[in-house]
């Protein structure tokens, strides 16, 4: 188990929590639960129920958007300090991707139920999380616009 300070530093790297103050992150750390998978396993498949996010402590995963869970067309590979599944904390929609374990993973998880309880007790946490999500949405929009511009104006 990592000391409190190490976990706070880890959470500071996670975009979903990056804008929260250290004193706010102290409320999240006790809500984190250990999780892990062996190489070759799947954390979840596209369409599965979505109720928690994961923060990688070690190992690597590959993210697949294809409907076929056997596909290995990774749109991203994630490692230490990266997170996935955070959309599942905010909505009741099924998983939007399949996550393959490429190297044995040790992770921390946060469930929707725990997050919602924490937000009811400490509503100011939600403001920082919403600001972080807004920033990620702006980045995605900028990338999309840039991609569209490059497609419309090939050199």
From TrEMBL:
UniProt-listed SMART domains: cNMP (SM00100)
Positions of the Cyclic nucleotide-binding domain: 16-119
Top-level taxonomic group: Bacteria
InterPro entries, sorted: cNMP-bd_CS, cNMP-bd_dom, cNMP-bd_dom_sf, RmlC-like_jellyroll
Protein name: cAMP-binding proteins-catabolite gene activator and regulatory subunit of cAMP-dependent protein kinases
Organism listed in the record: Sulfuriferula multivorans
